């Protein structure tokens, strides 16, 4: 995984960050996430961020917790900031963007905004090593591809194994963790894995445990 020329340095990370709560959409450092932005408040968010460092925080909503009247939906404390690395406009007022994952963050506080979207104060220090790029990782590629193939086939989803066999290890693990249709709490656990090896081990555990249909997501995460 090669960090691009426009990849931010730690000192470039912003003190405030717009967040986009979207269940099931996982962004990891170094990963690429395409998004179709159509809701007016998030169109406004993209317009604003294009002039302010191009950074957006992706975060998972807590589906099990229902917000009270007039309250914003509750979200997890940890998300991942991405840089808008490409974008295009559509004639019907949408943005088609790609976020490239930069660094994870923990929410320290939230600020009010007049544009409809949410602004948070991120704590960056805890995940500072994300900017150094992926660390070493070891795994059995054949086992991983067999496991993901079985997992996707059980959901009638295709897998281009030949393409995946040529992808570097870090990119392969990051991409599979992002695209596999896990439950929200499982995706959050993947996001909070301390390093690439832990992420790989957790991904393999989730894929292997998926063969047992009676084991719910909370049971799988306790394995």
Describe, in plain words, how this protein is organized in 3D:
There is one protein chain. This protein has a 5-stranded mixed β-barrel with strand order 1-3-4-5-6. The chain has helices at residues 40-49, 141-153, 161-164, 169-179, 184-191, 196-209, 217-221, and strands spanning 17-21, 32-37, 55-59, 78-89, 95-111, 118-123. It is built from 7 helices and 6 strands. The chain is of the alpha+beta class. The two termini are 29 Å apart. α4 crosses α6. The longest helix is centred in the C-terminal third of the chain and has 14 residues, at 196-209. It folds into 2 domains: 15-131, LON domain-like (Archaeosine Trna-guanine Transglycosylase, Chain: A, domain 4, Roll); 141-221. It is 29% helix and 23% strand.
Radius of gyration: 18 Å
What is the number of independent domains? 2
Q: Look up the CATH topology of the largest domain.
A: Archaeosine Trna-guanine Transglycosylase, Chain: A, domain 4
CATH superfamily of the largest domain: LON domain-like
How is the main sheet built? 5 strands, mixed, barrel
Rough shape?
globular
- Average residue-wise pLDDT: 89
Helix fraction, binned, reads 25-40%
Count of helical stretches:
7
Instruction: Write down the secondary-structure element order.
Output: EEHEEEEHHHHHH
| DSSP strand count | 6
First-residue to last-residue Cα separation: 29 Å
As residue ranges, the low-confidence spans are none
Query: What oligomeric assembly is this protein in?
Result: single chain
Give the percentage of residues in beta strands.
Answer: 15-25%
- The structure class reads alpha+beta
CATH architecture of the largest domain: Roll
Strand order of the largest sheet: 1-3-4-5-6
Query: Would you state the CATH class of the largest domain?
Result: Mainly Beta
């Amino acid at each position: 995984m090669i960090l691009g020329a426009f990849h931010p340095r730690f000192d470039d990370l912003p003190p405030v960050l717009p967040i986009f709560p979207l269940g099931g959409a996982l962004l990891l450092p170094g990963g690429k996430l395409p998004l179709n932005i159509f809701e007016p408040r998030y169109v406004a968010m993209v317009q604003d961020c294009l002039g302010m460092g191009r950074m957006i925080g992706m975060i998972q909503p807590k589906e099990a917790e229902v917000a009270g009247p007039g309250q914003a939906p509750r979200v997890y404390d940890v998300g991942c900031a991405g840089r808008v690395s490409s974008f295009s406009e559509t004639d019907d007022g949408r943005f088609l963007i790609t976020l490239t994952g930069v660094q994870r963050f923990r929410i320290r506080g939230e600020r009010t905004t007049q544009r409809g979207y949410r602004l948070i104060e991120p704590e960056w220090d805890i995940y500072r090593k994300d900017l150094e790029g992926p660390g070493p990782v070891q795994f059995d590629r054949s086992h991983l591809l067999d496991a993901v193939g079985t997992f996707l086939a059980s959901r009638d989803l295709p897998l281009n194994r030949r393409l995946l066999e040529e992808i570097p290890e870090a990119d392969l693990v990051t991409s599979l963790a992002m695209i596999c249709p896990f439950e929200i709490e499982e995706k959050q656990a993947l996001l909070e894995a301390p390093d690439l090896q832990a992420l790989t081990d957790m991904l393999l555990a989730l894929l292997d445990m998926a063969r047992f249909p009676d084991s719910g997501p909370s049971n799988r995460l306790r394995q």
